[in-house]
Amino acid sequence: MSIAVQPAHQRFGYGTALLKWVIDFFRKSGASQLEVGTGTFGYQLAFYQKHGFRVSSIDHNFFVKNYAEPIFEGGIQLFDMLRLTLRYPGNVT
Ligand SMILES: CC(C)(COP(=O)(O)OP(=O)(O)OC[C@H]1O[C@@H](n2cnc3c(N)ncnc32)[C@H](O)[C@@H]1OP(=O)(O)O)[C@@H](O)C(=O)NCCC(=O)NCCS
What we know:
By secondary structure, the protein is an alpha+beta fold.
């Protein structure tokens, strides 16, 4: 699922609160890891890595293959998706 906060309310900690809730929910559910996908550049990479996610793989041309229109962020076209993984050391499958 996508995570988003309305632009006027960004940078007030709501995104962090949402992400922490998801991380805690799946830790309590006994998941061994959580995976997210995001673009190869932009502040979102720092957002996830602050919470322990590490880059695990790259999905080349993901945003070209899966979206009807090209996506640009800061004037740069987004082509590839990075997959980031958060491992729960205490939960082993
Ligand atoms: C990603 C998103 C959900 C974060 O929500 P938020 O409520 O703004 O996040 P927070 O206020 O909790 O910020 C957490 C950290 O993210 C980073 N961050 C968030 N917005 C940023 C921005 N515009 N520029 C730089 N860093 C930013 C910062 O590291 C920030 O921590 P800091 O404020 O202590 O420096 C929100 O920016 C958003 O909806 N973006 C558009 C949709 C999107 O890109 N979703 C993710 C798809 S993978």
